[in-house]
Amino acid sequence: MIGRRGLSAAQSTWRNCWASPARQQQRTVSTKILSRRTTIRDARGQGSGARVAVGGWVKSVRKHKSVSFVNVNDGSCLGELQITLPAEEAAAEALGAKLSDITVGSSVFAEGELREVPGGKQKRLELHPNTVEVLGKCDTQSYPLQKKYHSLEFLRDNLHLRARTNTFGAVTRVRNALGQGLHSYFQDNDFLHLHSPILTSSDCEGAGEMFRIAKIDGKDEEFFGTPTYLTVSGQLHGEMYACALSKVYTFGPTFRAENSNTTRHLAEFWMVEPEMAFAGLEECVSSAQGAVQHSVAHALETCAEDIAFFNKNYDKQIAERLETVVTKDFARLTYTEAIEILRKAVAEGKGKVSFEKKPEWGMDLQTEHERFLAEKYVNGPVFVTDYPADIKAFYMRKNSPDSQNRETVAGMDLLVPKIGELVGGSVREERFEVLEKKMRHLGLIPEEDLDEETIASADGDLDWYLDLRRFGSVPHAGWGLGFERLVLFATGMDNIRDVIPLPRFPGQCKH
Amino acid sequence: MIGRRGLSAAQSTWRNCWASPARQQQRTVSTKILSRRTTIRDARGQGSGARVAVGGWVKSVRKHKSVSFVNVNDGSCLGELQITLPAEEAAAEALGAKLSDITVGSSVFAEGELREVPGGKQKRLELHPNTVEVLGKCDTQSYPLQKKYHSLEFLRDNLHLRARTNTFGAVTRVRNALGQGLHSYFQDNDFLHLHSPILTSSDCEGAGEMFRIAKIDGKDEEFFGTPTYLTVSGQLHGEMYACALSKVYTFGPTFRAENSNTTRHLAEFWMVEPEMAFAGLEECVSSAQGAVQHSVAHALETCAEDIAFFNKNYDKQIAERLETVVTKDFARLTYTEAIEILRKAVAEGKGKVSFEKKPEWGMDLQTEHERFLAEKYVNGPVFVTDYPADIKAFYMRKNSPDSQNRETVAGMDLLVPKIGELVGGSVREERFEVLEKKMRHLGLIPEEDLDEETIASADGDLDWYLDLRRFGSVPHAGWGLGFERLVLFATGMDNIRDVIPLPRFPGQCKH
Q1: B316 DSSP 8-state letter
Q2: If B487 and its partner were Cys, which of B134, B147, B493, B499 is the partner (CB 3.0–4.6 Å)?
């Protein structure tokens, strides 16, 4: 055993090693300077006369007779910081940089004093540096992002660089804020974050849509002993934990092996799925409204500049729409009312309202119907509840038949303008007998006359799901939100491939 | 088009529908009562005389002559709330429940008044209910969790019910707290949460360890057009975004198709991987310490009762160890010093210190060495930096050769007692020429003499990774933390399969 003194000696050796030749030979600015770095967001918030060190990428260079203005961004905010440099090569070199190396896309590190830009109407700070260093040059000929404007299509072909543009920087910040807003809503409301598994042996939602893990290379053997899939939803696992700890939520990637090449679908996307015990449709609806409002409010608070950017460049109504979302209760309709509204709209619309698919009780609502309800009828988010049992999943809790003897379930969808369905949820069938009958009918659990051993060894058997109702069952409810759809909704962007860092869809899994 | 008035009418119809027969026929307590539910954690914090409604699962029933004590837990905390019921069947039934239905594992909903338990030394509240309802019965004969004590092995066979035990409730709460502590550290320090992809076409870390997605059913075709794998790390994608937006972190599932049946490995586990531009080893080390301290501090603050439970039942040193972690700086050694310390320990240990693998410069540290350093030498977390270049990944930044002309990289591992490696990180090689040479040598990018078209179409090509250095390269650094290892460290649990909701390992992917 070596005592404390040994440790101290070792530690002091360690500290000295920072001054070793290895460190000094780093070509770039030393870590001692890097650690003094201020984000550009924080620098912009400081007063004239403050001394700061900033690092970032050059967005534009404007050369005038006596000065050069170099605009730099570091991703901490949409805005840039203007660095004022002497126009003369020798004077610039005295600061540490060759002017010809400071080009769009190059990275710089500058230290100096913030001063007010003279003559401007708005108070704005610029940096007068004592030192400027070019950390990484950027060849103007070969850099793909040279041009001022790039189409979103072009940027989808340059996925690894698109985060350097204003649009994708803003998307990343808003996406981050929306995610944190969701976390803080759930944490503030007694939900525990549950990391539900990605790999699963249960293929209950239809194996055709699920990605499957390949067998072990060169063998006809499964790594896990059973066929294994990528999850399509964490709901069932959420129920497992809600039926023990009351309130949980998942926030993780989910997968669909569907051949959908649309602006609304991805093969890999993120879902948020809360599940609550001791809850009914009322809690389901109110928590969905609360979570969406809290999330959007957090984005409005922390990304005002980004939202203003989207409002100016992508969707002139986005700022107003988001303000309404956070301040007003969402509208609510039953499915039966929604169908009536749609039929009436066609009948009274005098040809101005028409749908590809005629609205009729019993059908699933199509995006055209959902958007009509959210955009034309409500002009804002609207919950539709109590859907026909036949078009909804087996786990949704059956209502008693309605006055016309039609069967509905205690489910809800949240529809929003531009997107259609943002959230789908329901009360879960907690009655053992009702659920068992339905699952047996659908072949989700084996036939009753099998012996127990066969049942226990059946792959993907959902008997455990029935156990949650067999032992201390509780009324419970939950919902799922497609996170990328929320990002679309909050940014006004049109294509889901533009609101996730690396989009995966049929035919593309780049990088 | 239908106007505002139409909407109001529809909404009022909707509101009325809550009182419809469908709702009233729910067998269990109505949602109106459920929404008045207080968590048991909050109920325990209230004063005597407060009226509350609580729901939960029965943990124990003690029948006395005149009263029955029913202890109930709802997962909001480790502690239980005692409900005091009359011992007489008729009196209990007048409150709404059959005493014989209130068994361990059944779920109940009770409303009444909190009163101080008479005669106790510690002030403690119990619930005197006006109504009690059994929501879900639980057959004492068939319920697997009947017995008082269950081994962790037994509970691993009953994964879907184990969250109902004290241990797994506590693990879930601490895991939640540690995750939120990490999020809040990163959010407070200007990191953006990045959802790096799970599906990836790059197999650069060695395809042998990666799960591969099966081809489309019945066809010899890849869904994405290229062989697709499950990610082993989000680091490269983290670098993509850090080289645009400065500071990002991933927090998501990662996968290893290794046949490791140990208490430290899973096939699916969660990793936290921050990546920082304008950063060196110093920032790497200080952010790792900051994140771990912040995370553990959040768990200590919000899960004191759970930590005390682990301290009592699983590891008598855990509370003290965690307190030290959050209050003291972590120790630091270079790899070269660590080897010297290990060699000296063997030499001076007089047979009391021995290792299976003899410590020698150039070898990778084994868990036995890591634990010796963290447990015996430091007795706490310790960073080891500057490893030999040959044993570390291609992307780590090369130091200048040391005094003995040995090559090292600016990498670091954080070693902690009981676990060994908790964090691994490094400065990334930002020099284009150095990195290109190394990647070509390793076959990660095609040979130079290929034509450009062939290079561009190569599957899993990492040329994009070089682009980050080609255009505005910046010094950057990052690290990865195995989240389950942090949960092990913070709970004192021994087996990694017990700190993730649904463990996946060779041969098992249950539920």
Answers
A1: T
A2: B499
Inter-chain touch A27–B344, beta carbons under 8 Å: no
How far A224 CA lies from chain B's nearest CA (Å)?
A: 4
- C-alpha–C-alpha distance, residues B490 and B178, integer Å: 8
By C-alpha distance, which of A501, A123, A75 is closest to A305? A75
Chain A closest-CA separation from residue B119 CA (Å): 31
User: Across the A/B interface, how many CB contacts are shorter than 8 Å?
Assistant: 429
DSSP 8-state code for residue B213:
B
Is the pLDDT assigned to residue A387 strictly greater than 70? yes
CB contacts under 8 A, A 35-94 vs B, are: 35, 37, 39, 41, 55-58, 74-76
A 118-137 residues inside an 8 A Cβ radius of B: 135-137
Which residues on A lie below 8 Å from B408 (Cβ)? 22
Q: Nearest Cβ partner of B504 from A159, A197, A245?
A: A197
Q: Which two tokens stand for residue A440?
A: 């047996």
Q: Work out the angle at residue B256's Cα, subtended by the Cα atoms of residues B255 and B261, and round it to the nearest 5 degrees.
A: 125
Q: DSSP 3-state assignment of B319?
A: helix
Q: Which of A74, A160, A473 sits opposite B107 (nearest CB)?
A: A473
* DSSP class per residue in B20-41: SHHHHT-SS--HHHHTTB--HH
Q: What is the pLDDT of residues B158-191, one digit of tens each?
A: 999 999 999 999 999 999 999 999 999 999 999 9
Whether A332 contacts chain B with CB within 8 A: yes
- Across the interface, do A225 and B106 touch by the CB < 8 Å criterion? no
Q: Which residue has the tokens 């409150």?
A: B95
The owner of tokens 């959420």 is A238
* Token reading at B261: 């049946």
The CA-based angle B161-B165-B166, given to 5 degrees, is 155
pLDDT in tens, B49-82: 999 999 999 999 999 999 999 999 999 999 999 9
3-state secondary structure of A7: helix
- Spatial distance between the Cα atoms of A51 and A184, rounded to a whole number of angstroms: 35
**Are the beta carbons of A502 and B196 closer than 8 angstroms?**
yes
For residue A352, list chain B residues with Cβ-Cβ distance below 8 A: 1
Of A190, A328, A286, A481, the residue nearest B18 (C-alpha): A286
Q: Is residue B33 over pLDDT 80?
A: no
User: CB B341 to CB A241 under 8 A?
Assistant: no
Separation CA B215–CA B230 (nearest Å): 14
Residue B14, SS3 per DSSP: helix
Q: Count how many Cα atoms sit within 13 Å of the Cα of residue B223 in the half-sphere of its side chain.
A: 32
CA–centroid distance for A338 within its chain: 29
